[in-house]
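Internal QA ticket QA-208
Title: Verify multi-chain structure generation after dependency bump
Assignee: T.L.

Test input:
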Amino acid sequence: MSNQPTPPPGSARPYREVTLAAIVFAMVIGLVMNASITYAGLKIGFTLGGSAIAAVLGFGVLRGLLRKGSILETNIAQTIASAVNTSNSGVIFTVPVLLLLGFTLSWDQLDFWLITLACMAGAVLGAAFIIPLRKQMIEIERLRFPSAMGVAAILKSPGAGAKKSIVLLAGIALSALIYLPVGLPGIRLPASIDRLDSLVERERISPADAERTRTIAGWIERGAAPDAVLALGRVEAELHDLIEADEPDEAAIAGVRERIRDAAVPGVSPRLAHAALLASEGEQPWDSLRKTDLGWAGSPLPGYQDLNIRLPARTDDEGKLLAKVDHNGDNRPDLVLTDDRISLGRILGLPDEFQLVFAIAPFALGAGFITGRAGLMVLAGGILAYFVLTPIAFRLGWMPASITPATAPGYGFGAFNRPLGIGLLLGGAMMGILAALPAMRAALKSIAVASRMPRGSRDELGLKVLLAAIAGALLLLFIAADFEGNRPLNEGKQCPVSGLKVSENVEPTTYKGYLIRFASDEAAEAWSSSGPWTSLNVDRNTTSTVVWDDAQKDKYLASMNARPGALAALPSHLRAAVIAIVGALWIWFAGIIIAQCTGMTDWSPISGMALLTVVIVMLLAGTGAVLSAVLLGAALCVAITLAADMMADLRTGHLVGARPIRQQVLELCVVPIGPVVCMFTVLLIAAVNMKTYGVALGPETPTSAPQAQALQAIITGVQGGEIPFALYGCGALLGALLGLGAFSGLGVLVGLSMYLPFFYIATYGIGCLANMTLAKIKGRAWAEEWGVPFCAGLIVGESVLQLAINCVVLALG
Amino acid sequence: MKLIGSLVVIASLVFGTLSAATAYLPKLSLADERLLGLTLNAPAGGPPPLAGPGDTLTPELLATLRADGVERVRVKEFAFDRWSHAWWFALAVLGLTAGGVTIKQAARMQYAPSAAGERRESPASAARDALARIREIARSLADELPSIRDEHDRCRTIVHRLDEVQRQHSLTIVEAKPALIAALGMGGFAEFMDHFSAGERNLNRAWSAAADNHAPEAERSLAAAHEPLDKAAERLGA
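Actual output:
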């Protein structure tokens, strides 16, 4: 009897995994992170993954404050929080482009809800498509997902012993210490007048910024601004009044904008002029002009750049600095250490077209270390792009004569490295999928067998549930695509025939896949019958007649940047169905690519996939179908970011022993929430901007949406026929053939690195080399055991610090 | 052989990407009729540039550019007959194919069992040994735990013993992937990993529950790991 074990006290309480506390905590964290990161993303231009932050917070709250969380409960919390948060990077890359292109979004408009619906459908599709691939990617292919390994290291730290916890904390501390001078300069306070020269000297502000600040300081001191400035301010005030009217008059607004352009004062923004007007009228103190968003110079907090490390001064016979050491022509040797990167190539004296630059990014270092040897392929692709292709193309004269050695890498990136990289990615992924077919088959067979097991003992979500989710999401996508596809090309604009504003009472006509609206039945008749239309020019008292034959109609479509798509001949509902199906298949394929890239390297080429989505939809539906293209682009971006996030969460789950089905069910339930929060946040920001600045988003507002500006350039490029399909094709062929060797996914790795900026790859490569060196010296097991927690600390430290800095930046406005 | 294959692949990739970079860069030495009407996609000539993006190649512009010594211009339109390095690209494609096949053959030869039987130190046999050790640990834990009366001690034992599995043996099996694929084929490897991973995940769960001092869950998970690990061993012939 005495040898019997004591009854386990734990048997009375179930092991905590899916709990109400975890769900509530995760929802709150996910929603707050989603809204704040959406704003930060629109303002600063990049987003943060939520898993690591949620794991750290979950650790603190569930285990620390509530004192009852388990490793698996915290894992559930980070799964839900990141699922709610992650969709923001998909939305902010795409949706704001509509606002930049002049479309309006409002909660009482159908377009807003259709895009939201498409994003929700994309979220479900991304999760549902990737779930059946868990076995293949995580259990069979054994993709590493470096960040997911980092999150698992955090979750496991309570049981891993004090030493590993210390190593993890040391990683976090070192990461924060290294990254602090990178992030701090993001916080800018209004500069003191006495320090302007010093700021110019340290290249923190431009001489023009300093000059404008002195000018504003002069106004404040005198309590008066020049008449021209006040005149500009008055026109700006008129614009504000018009915008804030209950029913804004678009024509009047356009007229005032024109007058603002006429009244422009060099170096003075209309907002600054308006603020000066208010100050001169006593409505606000003159001191209120001392704001960075009005043009007063901002003084950044200290960063690496303040160390003022420059190239050695090398001069010609006349004592003038050589252009080689003074690219910006400011008569000082260039900085080699800026806040976020070190230009080692220039220190070593490499030719300018070889830009050997390292990002100061502990995250990249940690991810590279956890990836290990396989990550070297990423480094190899970067070397190919930036140290072979670009210099050779430059030396052989394949770049315009206006390109200098220093600008060659940037030109090469846009002209051939990026398109070839995207092509290699696609071809490599295709080969990877072909090679993985046996594994996929085995994985699906295993899931099918598991589906027949009793409900409580299943480890994996059944295929029937996933098929139902996919069918539902596909239907939503079709509805959204159908509505947008049936939107007239000239909705709310001018009639092509009469030039008057179109009327909703006149039946629209379809031409080459586009629905066209008219101002009157007569105009519609002239268009339909290819007949003549005579218009009267009142000013000149003359008439002109135009025959609306096909040539004239084509001319009109061209003026609207609307070339017919490949599906133009199909009826509109069928066209929408084909586009929805192609979009869904593309989401599946792109989701696999992104999950593979994230799994192998921690990088994900979201922008490249969004670019291709927009190109595909515009090719199918026509280049005028911008709304449809952005709608599907948004759905795809949300889908693929969530697919990668879900796979990473499942990888973390595998490492801590979570039951996949629980993560999968919860993730499928919460993923549609993220896009709604994100869309409303964008809407709110756009509404506030419209009231304050007269534009929804863009460089004139605090939320410049830099990622959406990139997509805007792509859309304009597609409309202008500037997409280099041949380069994509060549890249895809090379990427597929690269997979013939020992590693079928090689094309993905090489393509990814041709597509990414080299300075991140370089730092990432150092991490890979550090892993290999340590494994050689201390053994592979040692490098894993101690290196992974340390590198998890590096990844988490940077993420948490960046989030904190973003909060300060946002709080300071 | 593998080295030769790798060199051929690297050289072909470099030549392939280089030649692809000229796809939109026709030589101005081509006949006028093959160039006229093309749209520039980058500045040409100069500096300052004589023409910019969007400009159409006209006889006058062609003459100006040629007189300025411009050899190539970047255009929006692609055509095989204007692609000066198309043959290079075709050679690169052949090289990549040949290099890839050579590497694949070399890998097959490297991991194929020798006529005298499989070497003891090969990755595949190391994976078998690692799997045997994992199963041994799982079994011995199942035998030992009932004799440990204190729940915390049981949890500590589980964490300590499974640490070895996570740190060492699982890694050995994962690193033997190419050798196991060569030995079992992709389908066989997938089936093996399916079972092994299920067992491994249960062991990971046992570790987590034990680290959280929840012995019943840890022991349940440990017990659940036996069957998939046995099936994995069966697939591996261990």
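Spot checks passed. Chain B has a mean pLDDT of 89.
Status: verified.
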